[in-house]
Amino acid sequence: MMASVQVPVFAKFVDELRAIWAAQPDIESRMEAAKPSLERLVRDDDLKGLSAGWPSTEGGKNLLFYVDPDHGFAINAVVRVPGRRGRPHDHGAAWVLYGVLDGQESLERYDRVDDGSEPGHAEIRMSSVTTGTQGKVDLVPPHDIHAEQGGSVRSVAIIIRSQKLGGSNIQRGFDPVAKTYVERSGPSQIPYELTAG
Ligand SMILES: [Fe+2]
What we know:
It is built from 3 helices and 11 strands. It is α+β, with helices and mostly antiparallel strands. The chain is globular.
């Protein structure tokens, strides 16, 4: 997985994140400080060109480029087919920065409107939707309910997560019509070596 840092723009990005993680005292400050670095990365047209060769992540997958050995943050990508519809979900205790590299994606945000007292029951209401193209970065805090929707063309996003997903980090998937939720461990992590050609 460390081979991913052979791509210079990606290596610089990882160095920036490591410096931020070392300098900032808490995860919220780190994620906020990392936002401009991700904005610069996803504006890189060479990386966008490389991403044309990345495989689809259909079927609940994430490409996993990098996990930091000292700080634990993870860098993923998602590659969506045209017209991909995402279900509302949260990322459990993880913080997520989500940056569009290619194509167009929309981020829907939802409010929880029931009192949470009934296990398995959840009523949610969409509160906003923002549509982004290359360079757009969104910060999603822990337990925030949202959905990522694809556009009319293939789209690619780069994701910084405060921790690698899976294992003990439980996420929730919501069904707004049935007013239910399920708990699950999140997308499968597919190690992928980012190489320059
Ligand atoms: Fe998400």
